[in-house]
């Protein structure tokens, strides 16, 4: 799961800039993987952010301002929600990171898998499998290159 933080590289408000820096700094300091997406320089990012912030979470102006935070496609919230979660030491829940951990704990404690925990665990397994597959492909490519290099060295030695 990757946290997506929609920010604006060009802002007229120092307050928005400080909020963006607070979110990004916290994620970096806590080694939480994230992707920063600029809405000022990329119209696709701006459109995606605006269309995926739930209507009830938009300000009165109707246009959500950065930073806006998502876990993949799931909306987490804006800076105010992030700040409240940080103050209450509930950032993993705010970022929807705690759901996977909680599901695994429930299985261990209860010895049974509910439909909800099963879905969460399956999603985690798929993401881990994708990561392993990517790593294996990278290792295979490296091994193939090394084999080619070894083959050339053997040919040169035989000559």
TrEMBL record:
SUPFAM superfamilies: Thioredoxin-like (SSF52833). GO terms for cellular component: cytoplasm. CDD domains: GRX_SH3BGR (cd03030). InterPro entries: Glut_rich_SH3-bd, SH3BGR, Thioredoxin-like_sf. It holds the Pfam family SH3BGR. Residues 108-159 are annotated as: Disordered. Residues 125-144 have a biased composition (Acidic residues). Belongs to the SH3BGR family. This is SH3 domain binding glutamate-rich protein. It comes from Eptatretus burgeri.
